[in-house]
Design brief:
The protein is of the alpha+beta class. Helix content is 56%, strand content 18%. The strands form 2 sheets. It has a two-stranded parallel ribbon with strand order 1-2.
Length: 125
Amino acid sequence: MSLSRLAVVVCFVFVLALPFMVRGRGAGSDRAGEIPKDARTLVVITPHVEQIRSEFEIAFDRWHTREYGGRVRVDWRVPGGTSEIMKLLEANYQAAAKNGAIKLLGATGGAPAASAGGAPAVAAA
């Protein structure tokens, strides 16, 4: 193998390996290791990507620690996009309404509420 071909192969391998060499552990995974097992858990249903979830989790944990003095673990649920989440929530809350286990939260007023006809949001009691 000539020297120029060897240089190309070495450069190719270097370019492939570079992202793995420079990336650290993700911010979310570092913080998750620090959160105690007995921390409160916040369940969030979201269509957002990992970067947004990680930034929110870090900021929310800092805020919760500052305001309430305790750590919080975020349990992410990512069932799909906004329309899939709306269908999931509607199905869950309709089932809860049939069982009488709901409480009124009020009209949300956001874009999903507008697409849902401005119906009030409900949550399981």
